[in-house]
Amino acid sequence: MAKLTHLTLVERCTIESMLNNSESFKAIGRKLGRHCTTISKEVRGHILFKKTGCFGHPFNDCANRRHCDYTNLCSSPKCCSKSCRNCSNCHLHCPDYFKEYCKKLSTPPYVCNGCSERMKCTLEKHIYSAVSSHNEYESVRSESRSGVSLSENELSALDSFISPLIKKGQSIHHICSNNKSEIMFSEKTIYNYVDAGLFSAINLDLPRKVRCRPRKSNHDNFKVDKGCRTGRTYKDFQKYLSSVPGCPVVQMDSVIGTKGGKVLLTIHFVKAEFMLAFLRERNTAASVFYIFEKLYETLSPEIFKKIFQVVLTDNGSEFSDPLALEMDEDNELRTRIFYCDPSAPYQKGAIENNHEFIRRILPKGTSFDNLTQEKINLMMNHINSYQRASLGNRSPYEMFRILYGQDILDALGAELISPNDINLTPELLK
User: Which of 121, 105, 120, 134 shows the shortest CA–CA distance to 15?
Assistant: First the structure.
């Protein structure tokens, strides 16, 4: 029996295939030479949740759907001639809605892969996918091997010891050679920390280093804190929202131009569908922190805490320093940072969808290097002035003004563009 080895993609494909054939965990374990609990943990830890219906019927998980007589609860033109049992949105408005849970999912194999009723079921599907599971595994493994293996206090202590010596003109080799008992790291690790901007000392304090041709490396992908997801997972995010009903959610992401060039930080206010974008020289955690500090200063602490109560983002290295974003200089909490699950961008689908407007103006592969923040502001003014059916034919600008007031829009430098003047093509920035 295989021990202390990770599951391969081939093994995961075997698991998926045998689950589709309704075979047990024990049978799968015997086939792969693994313990049945290994298979159980693998399946339960990598379940995809899909809200799909069945042939001729949309997703509907209401326990009363089979005997439902309601019609047009969602007031949708598409639904006016249908019974609510055949609508995927009416349950959100129904006073008698009661969610039905499939009892089969509480027992092995915990997924719908081999279920004979799957093609007739309108409930949420729990699916095990070998490819998705392996991609998530690779993402988590890669994340665990990157970044700083120190706590914030340990890093600060190391900085306070090493940086003053560097600023005296001492080389990192000299410092490490003469302080082996205090510095339990290699010279390469110390150089990496300096490169990543984690020390108060910078490369300019290392005269010989800046004269040498730098090795090719991607410091933009340097993770500041490997444990940043602890207590900030998507499950923690959902738990937080349930404890604070009505809490406004902000989603955050990056939009890449050409490799190694300037990038955008996008901030999306979900309720208003209003988006901000900021141009950055490099895709680093320090650049995100700088923007948060500027917003905190521009808006005032009171307003910032009001509109940035909770922020949901992905697992990019540029967002790997949550404490710096969450706390102000007085060590007071100003926001809460949470992360989507690995390989699950749909969990922040609102901002992903809104990026389509940016890509109309800046298609994929377009360099951002010649752009200025003024041009980015112009682009976002046009996008935010574009009316949306989801907002009752209001624009995000108008909805944001209703929710938060004109003063905040003025502080952000946002402007309303006349409907007939809106341009969502590359010609806008030429």
Answer: 134
